[in-house]
Specification:
By secondary structure, the chain is an alpha/beta fold. The protein has one domain: HAD superfamily/HAD-like (Rossmann fold). About 45% of the residues lie in helices and about 20% in strands. The protein contains nine helices and eight strands. Strand 4 and strand 5 form a beta hairpin. Helix 1 runs parallel beside helix 3, helix 2 packs antiparallel against helix 3 and helix 4 packs across helix 6.
């Protein structure tokens, strides 16, 4: 009998509103600005205008991130400042108890834990580290001096179809062929439909109405986690 190589098991999680109770970017920049440069909080009305421009499709989601970062964090942040801000924020992030339990269960079942999120890697990594994730796939920021970050996206915003492309690129870097892997994917938002359709086990977590309807149509498992 030929030996059958067991699949590489991957449990890939979106972060905002899948693991975390709230979206994290706005909370991160406001908390960080309040500690490092409180005067920047006076610029919040401009952030509101940028958010409205995104809502009316005048600017992209990626551009909104850049504008918000410029206004509240400044054009550049040192590596030390950004690392400290990320660790402080990670201490206060509220997580779904159901998400934490599922992460523990996936790890116990031999799954490699991967976080795939549109949020910036420079602060997501602190949250993922506290949860014991093995890898992070996230939006990359432009590099500043001495390992710091600049207000700008390096490459793609890890959102929608770009998220799936970035997951596939990461798998290729790791030497994991798709046919060698068994993939679970968890998300709350319909923008992740391409990755949910690609996964072996798609989970719609606390789905907003468009994803709940799509999950019901596709037969994807719906998980409602409450704190």
């Amino acid at each position: 009998m030929d030996d059958v190589t067991p699949p590489i098991k991957l449990a890939i999680y979106d972060m905002d509103k899948t693991i975390t109770v709230q979206a994290t970017w706005t909370g991160f920049v406001i908390r960080s600005a309040g500690r490092q440069a409180p005067w920047r909080l006076a610029l919040l009305p401009l952030v509101g205008l940028a958010t409205a421009a995104y809502g009316t499709k005048l600017i992209s989601r990626g551009r909104l991130k850049v504008v918000t970062q410029n206004l509240l964090l400044g054009r550049t942040m040192s590596a030390a400042a950004i690392a400290a801000a990320a660790e402080r924020f990670a201490e206060h992030v509220v997580l779904f108890e159901g998400a934490q339990a599922r992460i523990v269960a996936d790890r116990a079942a031999g799954y490699r834990l991967v976080m795939a999120t549109a949020s910036y890697r420079f602060y997501v990594s602190a949250i993922a580290g506290r949860l014991g994730f093995d890898a992070v796939i996230a939006t990359q920021s432009r590099a500043g001096r001495d390992g710091g970050v600049r207000a700008g996206i390096d490459g793609e915003n890890c959102y929608g179809p770009a998220k799936l492309a970035m997951i596939e690129a990461w798998m290729a870097e790791q030497g994991i062929a798709r046919e060698q892997a068994h993939v679970r994917f968890y998300s709350d938002h319909v923008s992740d439909a391409p990755t949910l359709a690609w996964a072996d086990e798609p989970f719609a977590v606390n789905p907003h109405p468009p994803l709940r309807a799509l999950a019901a149509l596709k037969g994807w498992t719906i998980l409602d986690w409450e704190n």
